[in-house]
Amino acid sequence: MKMGKMKPERIARFAIDLLFPPRCVFCGAVVPPGSQICRECAAQIRPSGEVRCEPLPLRDRKVLCAFLYPYEGKVRDSVLDFKFHGRKENAAFYARQLAARVRLAFPGAGFDFVTSVPLSAERKKERGYDQSELVAAKLARELGVPYRASLKKVRGNRVQHLLGRLERAENVKGVYRLVGQDAADGKRILLVDDIVTTGYTLAECASVLLCGGAADVSCAAVAKAFPEQVENSRSL
Ligand SMILES: [Zn+2]
After folding, report:
1. Given Cys at both, which of 6, 22, 106, 207 links 10, Cβ 3.0 to 4.6 Å?
2. Range 149-162 average pLDDT
3. What is the whole-number distance in angstroms between the Cα of residue 42 and the centre of ligand 1?
């Protein structure tokens, strides 16, 4: 490779990749500089382009969620590493894939900004980062629109996956608030979460944005889990 013709930031990236070889987002195998997934995973794991958008459980309005992968196998391992074990670098890969998915699912949506389902301030401090915010901010850049932290979690709640379906709906009520009164007013918003299960958390956040005057809310998530999958998992 001719270094003389490369832009400085690409040279820096290349040097970092040489020092710390990148690893496959899904299986952890070392991949060539500039790559994010290995050949085997690229062949096996494909974004579920054929999967329709999920309608969220919102009573008076239809809000759809596009997601990338079913939450299983290597995708599950990858998302858990990202969420709990500091694999923050996965965010760039998910965001790039999600951008393509969002463009297909919501053509011509003209989003004013991207936002995300927030962790509580305590949880973010404990973890050191908010995984959905990382994906949403990078997704915003891919889509060429701003990222805005327009929601905050105002009180803690019980962990969703330990609860039954009805309890989950109740558990997220009143937990999220708008940041700034006019944050959503008249805006078309793309709301991002990492994993969608029953959809109650996303629906509650979408509802807060719509009550705050949002013109439209669409959602995007990295993975879609089925409730029974998550109820059987203690690691989420
Ligand atoms: Zn791999």
Report:
1. 6
2. 82
3. 7
